[in-house]
């Protein structure tokens, strides 16, 4: 069964990676970086401020925790534990895989890009989704951001799917912790006053 999953994962990789075009290569390479998304992050900070005002500091703790949990779990635990080569590091795929400018580290399971983006999307959906339901577009952004990794040949679709699941769990855990910190500090503040 594991071999069938690996075979399906490789077939999906070659299909989605094969949808490349020379015009799109630099666009997808840029989209997989962090810096092009800074205006979006600034807009999200604005929405957090509009939702929680000066009390929004605890949401920043949540964002920090979500990314920390997701990134460290995938990069420090999963990648070395599973030791699955990235597609661009796999010599069996060298002749058929389209890559562009980057490969990354040796191992790729699970995707930290997917984990981090889905962690942020899940956390922010919990934090500001009631006031701004349209913020669910963050999940579409997370899918696109993660897809760039398959397009560039640095992750299998399975790396992305598992990374997304890990990220969503980490985002929800970070929400629970940061919300508890907020409740604890709010109740202590009212007790002191």
Automatic annotation (TrEMBL):
Protein name in UniProt: Lipid A 4'-phosphatase
* Superkingdom, taxonomy of origin: Bacteria
Q: Which InterPro entries match?
A: PAP2/HPO, PAP2/HPO_sf
Organism expressing this protein natively: Mongoliitalea lutea
By its UniProt entry, which PANTHER family does this protein fall under?
AT30094P, SPHINGOSINE-1-PHOSPHATE PHOSPHOHYDROLASE
Q: Which residues form the Phosphatidic acid phosphatase type 2/haloperoxidase domain?
A: 61-175
Keyword hit for Nucleotide-binding: no
**Entry's transmembrane regions:** 27-49, 56-74, 107-125, 137-154, 160-177
List UniProt keywords, sorted A-Z. Membrane, Transmembrane, Transmembrane helix
Q: Name one Pfam family in it.
A: PAP2
